[in-house]
Amino acid sequence: MKKILTFLPALLFCMMAGAQNIDKLYEEGKALYDAKSYKAAVAKLKPAAEQGHKKAQYRLGRCYDKGYGVTENDKQAFSWYSKAAEQGHAKAQYQLGKCYKNGEGTAKDIKKAVVCFAKAAKQGNGDAQLALGKCYMKGTGVEADQAIAKTWFLKAVKNAKDGSEVLAKLKEDAADGDTDARKILKIVGK
């Protein structure tokens, strides 16, 4: 028993130190990613992602999705998004929904896309709120429901974090002739 009591604090210390190292790798990787030093970012993000850091998994997914610092690989992007999404990471859930919607890195599955969009939207992700609204507007993967669509569109454009970006993108798309964007702007009164 005495050995166990001596061992437990050492084990806890090692676990906390390991978590700090993973967080440090992620923070360094994120800073490099933000500075567009993608190859160096991947070198930091990958070990953190492999150890289960959800933000590192998401960001590594973005690298594979866009070909940042690595060869573009939709299957790898899907895999890393999936790992982060399983841990409740909203941006990863949204990106995973896009993968399912477009059949990128996985088989196309609109119903799975809606599930992913809904998880992220409920966490306040503006892009996912817009995507989910579009699904309800068009009846894509769910039964069409204009009232629910409007609710999600309003949440998306009024989103405290990224509502202004969502609205700006809708206006840009509408100016480029996107009829869905025009319809959504009319629905939300913009």
What is the H-and-E element order?
A: HHHHHHHHHH
Based on CA inertia axes, which overall geometry fits?
elongated
Structural class category: mainly alpha
Cα end-to-end separation? 69 Å
How many helices?
A: 10
Commentary on this structure:
By secondary structure, the protein is mostly helical. The chain is built from ten helices and no strands. Helix 2 packs across helix 3 (54-66), helix 3 packs antiparallel against helix 4 (74-86) and helix 7 packs antiparallel against helix 8. The protein is elongated and about 45 Å long. Mean pLDDT is 91; it is low at 10-17.
Summarize the SSE layout with pairings.
Elements: H1 2-34, H2 38-50, H3 54-66, H4 74-86, H5 90-102, H6 110-122, H7 126-138, H8 146-157, H9 163-175, H10 179-187
Helix pairs in contact: 1-2, 2-3, 3-4, 4-5, 5-6, 6-7, 7-8, 9-10
